[in-house]
Amino acid sequence: MISRSWRNLCRRYSQTVTFRTTESSPSQHNEKQIGLFYSVNHDLCKQLFAYGGLPKSFAKQTKTFTETAIMVRQPALDLIDCIKASDFNKPVIRYVMYGEKGSGKSLTLAHLLHYAYEEGYLIVHVPWVSEFLRRVPRHKEMSNSQTREGFVDLPLDVAAWLLHFKTQNQVLLKNTELKISRDYVWSKRESTVAGSPLSQLVEHGINRVKYACDVLDALVYEIKQLSNSKQCKTFVAIDGFNGFFCPLTRLHTPTKKKVKPEEVTLTGSFLELAKNDWSNGVVVVTADQLALPDDHQDSYLPRYLLYKKGFELLDPFVPIEVGRYTDKEFLSCASYYRDRLWLRGPPEIETELKFTSACNPYKFMEQCAPL
């Protein structure tokens, strides 16, 4: 009985503040919806984020809330406006999102991925670079590259990523106009001839894991060619991009030698997409402290996180800061949590949480969990 009374009180309080918008299309979002949550269709969410893209803590929360709701925030709107105003005949513009830990960079990227999907972009999405290079399971599959001496392949990881690419772009890959421009010979008996659908190249990498890394190289080349020839628009999104520039990875060769990021074949493939030597596309990356070792997290600014090599690769780029919640966003989020019964207690508790969390989205979510 007491529990039911608390539930009704929380819901009544949350209803006094507008925290939702019925506009579910990112391309239609504007400043009137800043701070409001919009729901992402379950099937679409599964298509875009089944293999990564949402922070694990947030993904767990969506199961508890039985919905995926993303807040409309200013950085996402700024980026969408920039993309809409871009000249796609010119070299791609690189955007770098940065901010404190837990400020919402990954969710802003998720908002942009939804926008890219609705606008018909071919999506090239790396959910988290450190999954390849730093969060290494004990028995990670690794092999010496057969085509590039001195490099190592991560065939299982790349095959899994190709499946992610296929799932996100399942509609576009049915387009038979997206064809490859070269012959690719994998072995004496296996080849992919010029004029084959792009989907055939992707399928080969998934089914023949041995060649997955070489398929990724070919896929990157073909995507750039298709974009240049205006066959498709491409949206490149890489979370934790600065992880490619760590001095060392947690990978080891059979001789116990530590592997550098540039010695992993997939690093070169994805860095090719971050260059501005192609057109008809967009490149959005995040620079995140969590993508680096603990001893290199003193600042969240791009120049520090990207190291010299990464900064020079992306320069010039457009920096987009993702900050803490504004007062309006905090109030909206608190109301949403009350509606989902994630936050309970008297209204005065929000003032205390605002102080203890410093309006950091992740800290606020974590502090509400036991309440």
Any overview of this molecule?
The protein has 371 residues and is α/β, with parallel strands linked by helices. It has two domains: 1-73 and 325-371, no CATH class; 91-321, no CATH class. It is 41% helix and 12% strand. It has 15 helices and eleven strands. The chain has helices spanning 2-14, 42-49, 56-65, 74-84, 105-118, 130-133, 155-168, 198-207, 212-228, 265-274, 302-305, 307-314, 327-339, 349-357, 361-368, and strands at 37-40, 68-71, 93-98, 122-126, 143-144, 152-153, 184-185, 191-192, 234-238, 281-287, 318-321. The strands form four sheets. It has a five-stranded parallel beta sheet with strand order 4-9-10-3-11, with helices on both faces. Strands 1-2 form a two-stranded antiparallel ribbon. A hairpin with a 7-residue loop joins β5 and β6. α8 (198-207) packs antiparallel against α9. It is globular, with a radius of gyration of 22 Å.
Task: Compile the SSE list and pairings.
Elements: H1 2-14, E1 37-40, H2 42-49, H3 56-65, E2 68-71, H4 74-84, E3 93-98, H5 105-118, E4 122-126, H6 130-133, E5 143-144, E6 152-153, H7 155-168, E7 184-185, E8 191-192, H8 198-207, H9 212-228, E9 234-238, H10 265-274, E10 281-287, H11 302-305, H12 307-314, E11 318-321, H13 327-339, H14 349-357, H15 361-368
Parallel strand pairs: 3-10, 3-11, 4-9, 9-10
Antiparallel strand pairs: 1-2, 5-6, 7-8
Helix pairs in contact: 1-13, 4-5, 7-8, 8-9, 9-10, 14-15
Keywords: Mitochondrion, Ribonucleoprotein, Ribosomal protein, Transit peptide
Protein name: Small ribosomal subunit protein mS29
Organism: Galleria mellonella
